[in-house]
Design a protein that fits this description.
With 400 residues, this protein is an alpha/beta fold. Helix content is 46%, strand content 13%. The strands form 3 sheets. A 6-stranded mixed sheet has the order 1-6-5-2-3-4, with helices on both faces.
């Protein structure tokens, strides 16, 4: 369809739209007024990872189009944990842990969004404000009556756990009701009219739209993004070394830059649209030219958004030096104990996830130490920093 609002035109042109509860209604609303829209994030760790980045960019696009982004932190629902497509229940966190995680996560959002008191300034809210104050029996009477257990059991997020005969606690089962209640509460408190999320959140978003209509008679909207997979069919952000964290204290700038530099050729143009602010005409030109230059531009721009322009430039310089055979202090550095072996260094630096994998890489000749081939019997002299490399693209420094 042809959109009239700047918001939906922007989201559509850059590949964010998958499903909408009422695309025409949302388009008309966004064309005539500022729309407050939110996405929820569970503070299960001190950092979000790159799998959450498309949602963060959606909020950024809202602000760029003249609307109001609302970041909802799940300080309340985080005490339960979203069961969606999880194989098992998450460990319950303390209130102090959740608060510390939210404070850490906010530092990343401050790079992508402008916070303040203005009509289109971003705000961050915590659903513990209203969920912690709920009284159980009144909540069941007022809200629970609007949910069908039969329908809740039909959602993929629940059905998959049950089909696998994996435990789904009553605590987790309540999550979708609480998420729907969040939407209604934000509609009441802040005039929020849009919830966005990944395609796996479609059922939860629809629940919220229907709850607001049934309890308040309010028209609100839902919008989801497509599942972001890589050209080889993998899940976005999953690597052999683990999650690609957004916070710099969880993943070095060099590794973050290198993640984007290693993007599959077939994903470069799409990722430039989703994860950078590079104009569409420039993306088209980059995609038609040197693919390596396009990958470097992707790495530079994605890293600059998340870590700052200086960090991106340092990471790019470190990569150029590493690929040219020179050790550089801007490579991520890992301190090793006296007597550490190459296997220890490969695991500690994240170049290998296990001893078995480290041995395999050494036996295959995929490991280099200061540019020279290294094997199982190569000693690790730590009297000075050493450049440890896996393949042509992954480099770290190890020392004492």
């Amino acid at each position: 369809m042809t959109y009239q609002s700047d918001l939906l035109r922007l989201l559509d042109s850059r590949g964010y739209i998958h499903q909408a509860t009422d695309a025409a209604g949302l388009d008309a609303l966004a064309a005539r007024q500022i729309v407050p829209g939110y996405i929820g994030f569970d503070p299960t760790a001190p950092s979000l990872h790159v799998g959450s980045l498309v949602q963060i960019m959606m909020l950024r696009r809202m602000q760029q189009a003249g609307h109001k982004p609302v970041v909802l932190m799940g300080g309340g629902t985080g005490k339960i944990g979203d069961p969606s497509f999880k194989d098992e229940a998450r460990k319950l966190m303390t209130g102090d842990t959740i608060a510390a995680n939210i404070a850490s996560i906010r530092t990343v959002f401050e790079r992508f969004l402008t916070f303040g008191d203005g009509p289109t300034d971003a705000v961050m809210v915590d659903n513990a404000e209203w969920l912690d104050a709920l009284e159980y029996i009144p909540f069941l009477r007022e809200v629970g009556q609007h949910f069908s257990v039969n329908r809740m059991l039909s959602f993929d997020s629940v059905r998959l756990r049950l089909d696998r005969e994996q435990s789904l606690s009553f605590l987790e089962f309540n999550y979708m009701i609480l998420q729907a209640y969040d939407f209604m509460e934000l509609s009441r408190r802040a005039g929020v009219r849009l919830q966005m999320g990944g395609s796996d959140q479609w059922g939860n978003i629809v629940n919220g739209v229907e709850l607001a209509r049934r309890m308040d008679g309010t028209e609100v909207h839902g919008l989801t993004t497509p599942l972001i997979t890589t050209a080889d069919g993998g899940k976005m952000g999953k690597t052999m070394a683990g999650a690609v964290w957004l916070n710099a204290d969880a993943l070095p700038d060099f590794d973050y830059w290198q993640f984007w530099r290693n993007t599959h050729d077939g994903d470069v143009a799409r990722f430039l649209k989703l994860f950078t602010d590079v104009p569409l005409d420039e993306i088209e030109a980059l995609a038609a030219g040197d693919i390596n230059a396009a990958k470097k531009r992707l790495a530079d721009e994605a890293t600059a958004l998340c870590r700052g322009r200086d960090a991106a430039e340092r990471a790019a310089a470190a990569a150029a030096a590493a690929f040219g055979g020179a050790a550089t202090a801007d490579l991520p550095r890992y301190a090793m104990l006296e007597g550490a072996t190459l296997i220890d260094a490969l695991i500690a630096s994240g170049l290998a996830p296990s001893k078995k994998e480290a041995r395999r890489k050494l036996e295959e000749g995929a490991v280099r130490l200061d540019g020279e081939p290294a094997g199982l019997d190569t000693p690790l002299d730590l009297t000075a920093d050493r450049r440890l490399s896996l393949g042509k693209k992954r480099h770290v420094l190890v020392g004492r």
